[in-house]
Amino acid sequence: MDEPVSLGLIGAGRIGTSHARVIAQDVPSARLVAVADPRPAAAEALAHRHGARAFSDGLALIDDPAVQGVVIAASSDAHADLVVAAARAGKAVFCEKPMSLTLGDADRALAAAEEAGVILQVGFNRRFDPGFRAAHDAVTSGAVGTVQLMRSLTRDPGLANPGAVPPWTIFLQTLIHDFDTLLWLNPGAEPVEVYATADALVAPEFKEQGLLDTAVVVITFDNGARAVAEASFSAAYGYDVRGEVFGSRGMVTAGDGARSSMRLYTSGGLSHDTARGDVELLGQAYAAEFVEFTAAVREGRAPSVTGADARRALAVALACIESVQTHRPAPVAEAGVLR
Amino acid sequence: MDEPVSLGLIGAGRIGTSHARVIAQDVPSARLVAVADPRPAAAEALAHRHGARAFSDGLALIDDPAVQGVVIAASSDAHADLVVAAARAGKAVFCEKPMSLTLGDADRALAAAEEAGVILQVGFNRRFDPGFRAAHDAVTSGAVGTVQLMRSLTRDPGLANPGAVPPWTIFLQTLIHDFDTLLWLNPGAEPVEVYATADALVAPEFKEQGLLDTAVVVITFDNGARAVAEASFSAAYGYDVRGEVFGSRGMVTAGDGARSSMRLYTSGGLSHDTARGDVELLGQAYAAEFVEFTAAVREGRAPSVTGADARRALAVALACIESVQTHRPAPVAEAGVLR
Amino acid sequence: MDEPVSLGLIGAGRIGTSHARVIAQDVPSARLVAVADPRPAAAEALAHRHGARAFSDGLALIDDPAVQGVVIAASSDAHADLVVAAARAGKAVFCEKPMSLTLGDADRALAAAEEAGVILQVGFNRRFDPGFRAAHDAVTSGAVGTVQLMRSLTRDPGLANPGAVPPWTIFLQTLIHDFDTLLWLNPGAEPVEVYATADALVAPEFKEQGLLDTAVVVITFDNGARAVAEASFSAAYGYDVRGEVFGSRGMVTAGDGARSSMRLYTSGGLSHDTARGDVELLGQAYAAEFVEFTAAVREGRAPSVTGADARRALAVALACIESVQTHRPAPVAEAGVLR
Amino acid sequence: MDEPVSLGLIGAGRIGTSHARVIAQDVPSARLVAVADPRPAAAEALAHRHGARAFSDGLALIDDPAVQGVVIAASSDAHADLVVAAARAGKAVFCEKPMSLTLGDADRALAAAEEAGVILQVGFNRRFDPGFRAAHDAVTSGAVGTVQLMRSLTRDPGLANPGAVPPWTIFLQTLIHDFDTLLWLNPGAEPVEVYATADALVAPEFKEQGLLDTAVVVITFDNGARAVAEASFSAAYGYDVRGEVFGSRGMVTAGDGARSSMRLYTSGGLSHDTARGDVELLGQAYAAEFVEFTAAVREGRAPSVTGADARRALAVALACIESVQTHRPAPVAEAGVLR
Lengths: 339, 339, 339, 339
What we know:
The structure is a homotetramer of 339-residue chains.
Chain A: E1 5-10, H1 14-26, E2 30-36, H2 40-49, E3 53-55, H3 58-63, E4 69-72, H4 79-88, E5 92-95, H5 103-116, E6 120-122, H6 130-140, E7 147-155, H7 169-184, E8 191-199, E9 214-221, E10 226-232, E11 240-247, E12 250-254, E13 263-266, E14 269-272, H8 278-299, H9 307-326, E15 330-331
Parallel strand pairs in A: 1-2, 1-4, 2-3, 4-5, 5-6, 7-10
Antiparallel strand pairs in A: 7-11, 8-9, 8-15, 9-10, 11-12, 13-14
Helix pairs in contact in A: 1-8, 4-5, 5-9, 7-9
């Protein structure tokens, strides 16, 4: 049995804390040895919980020789620089989405990883969900034929602080998952154009400040397929992630949101509970993406989802922003340049 | 027990033949007494099967004193004139969708019915499907809160003769069902703008001739809600009609396509059959719309879906055509003028 | 188009009233022309509602020349005599289950129908439910292979008057549906032995008076298959009828209890309503059994479910009573004698 | 973060190998340090794969001071002696079901564990499945009211070597899971009597040798509830484990067998794959029972399922054997003596 891969985590916020717990509970092939966060108390607390060393500086963590792989869960605008730094230090990199907020930064990150010859995996978790994987297998096996219509949606369970949402978050942070999913489920096709419309329907009182909490996007691909991506920041019934691919030979869907196989029948009819958070809904996927990362490290191979995928999804997100601003369809920039 | 309402059917094509059978088999409150079709043999055959009189001229059928209500299932471009004629003859009118192909014709039909004081029902069958009705009840009861995101789709089981499809059929004939459904499921809101994209993906060899067999539409309502309507002329697995309404308090969906409650588990896994045709999927709805029509006739009241609804859905369809032509979002004309 | 078959209904109680409404609303091939009930007011009211003649004497109704077929929905202990009388009068007979309460009476009824050469159909409604029919098709097509394990259950929505339930009702009136279903779904096999256990769990205060409101039965067939039949008089969530057949090549199930395809997702999770009554759950089946009856009358052929089936199911029910009384397995009498 | 609990595994057969993999892949709180098997090569191979020491003698493994907890996955007739030995050595014990084949051995094992004050957990995996846990929560919260009717079934995916199945395996090894499930889902009630029937329907050619591969059991509880347990050694569609509890206020079910949320619609209708093996269907449960075991060890508390539960389920299994032998209902021995 191989030794676990030693990971250093940059970012002790919500997603970093979640990743640390997933690694500890469900990923014996990884071991968390270091945690960095600019807020020393946060780094200390999380590191202590997992028997890891604490850093206030992510770059120091990167340089720690005990760290084999770096998990980047810092704020999004720091991602690209951290990828570059980790790559230059020769460390394998797992970067949360979005890998960057500009195509230029994406190119810098990709170039650094390529030059250093290190692994660069991005946190597109749908790819590791059993339902979405089975859907992908169905598509690639030809079971649905030529792809014609697609759908992917993300609905978060709530919006704690609508005033603190950075501009364009719904495209850059939320729908970027759906864009990657749609690109992945339409293999060989390139997105050509998008039409996006967005609004503040959950918290309309923040619309003036620029909040967009609800969005619908139509993507046109070069093979003619049309895809709809849809997001809301507040689903009363929990965390909702679903996909659908319709083609010349049939349709495949993924995602049902059921918490378990339990079904309750009472005087009110049938009911069952729905998944309430991302870890609950995508727990297996979160574990599986780190299993993939450690396997790629051990085997010295590219992971199944890479920085190039992050760049492609970003190109779609940026086109959406342009579409909202111009109020008409917008072309998708040459997403494939560095692939 | 009341006597059945005597109906005259104009149009002995596919949908007319289907309506005649539904009336005979499932609607004891109606009796088919006359059938008209410009092709005398078709009129004769269908009339004979149901013990009705045959006419080659729809206007003659309208004037037959034995006919209490006229069911219009002729070609779409004849609908408005037939509505006007039947109304002027004082007959109750059931008109298949679309009631007209222009807003002007819709206004003429509405005016004639209003002037004559006759019932004018339109064949939007989703409204009578048990699942869609229950979804509508959930929306109007407030169970999903303020409507924010919607979806309605229609996928037909196949496209027999792609070269014979009139221009814009996908919007005027197919998606018009979805537009009505979306307007009905978002009560009190008006469609403001649409973005539509369409293509020939099922039969690309007919694209040059103007075939559009696949389409996606985004509708923006004046209450901020966004709706997606989607259609394909060829679903390998049958006839697929589904709806979804997402709001501030939850979501409701309708449509599952299962042929029955049977489920089969074999070495290949679980399977069950899907509905293969419109009558199979919407059989109860087809019967229920004629039950509603005869009830409205007997009670001398307006039916639950009227010519005004047809006009509103048409306004959306026409805006879609403009959006495809201009390749940008298009405003929806004052749909509500005559309501 | 043929004229409707003229039916006379004996019994204006709950099920008779329901049958009359189903015939009027959903079965154009039948027309209710006469209603008989020993309570004249009940006969009058129901007859009036459907434009039929009222009789206080079922035998007089049988003799009415306007009556082509007799629908027997009287009290169970009168069924066999009425079948005999109707058969001798040369009328087609539709008899509610149970056709009789003893094998001797079943034999009398079968003999009378055979002698007179009239149709004798019995009201086993599961056979006409689309889910159960599809399950039956799967079994007879060989899709589940050799039958090994079976299940059929009936749960009624409530027990209005526990003190008025005749002895052994749960076997003779309720589970007799399940026995017929299981015999039908295991074609070619004969029931050999049963083990039955029953109790008053819904209304235990009536146990002393002999109430049995909950029962479980195991049937052993001559092909080795074991079947479980299960009943309760009070399901809080409505009317629940399900079946399952497991065999060497797979499993088929029928029955899901959903009221429609609507699904509601709220802060409480997913929910949908369940069917609350027999007509709601089995409405299509009730209509279809009368369609079958009128078709058999018109075509002069045996219906798909006959008095011989009633006798076979009764033999199982009687063995269950013996099993409860002796508190051990009981053999099933020569069920097939008259087949 | 605590150090993992060091476990020694006795038995390198199918289930031992599976447990070792589950512990390595999914249970960071445990570490496999030793493997024993009388077949030295099997012990060596499994130990090597997991970086553990190999033993040919289970007793030597028990005495190894590096072993904190012993996982017993040896042949069933050795279980009780190994429990006693491990308890006397002061080791925490996880014993696969059945803990013993006689009530006397069960009492010995329970007494040894009690005397030594060690933890004794038994491998009833349904208790850790999310669906069954949620069903249990529904029952104990009162959501289904007073329990009246129950069902639990186990269908294995196949029978490799029908000639090598020890007598009564279907009750002692397979249905014992269902008996525990039913006792657990009917809290506070005691089983009073069983009726069991069993046969060789999967491999009838081995019936003469005593094979029983299909069984149905009815359990009567002292609160009147009736439960059906059902097993088959060969389900063509995979591994099927389901439960149902029906009570005065409703019903709860668990188990659906779906491999993932993926659904495929093709010209053949809808399909999805079913779980094919116990680890696939119950993977989360297998991991969770070891998480529970290590938690109980660390916290020095009783686990949620104990040797006393094993004794109760065994009492039901033994009564089933008597019922089959006597061909009548059999009483359940004082199952609760040592609880």
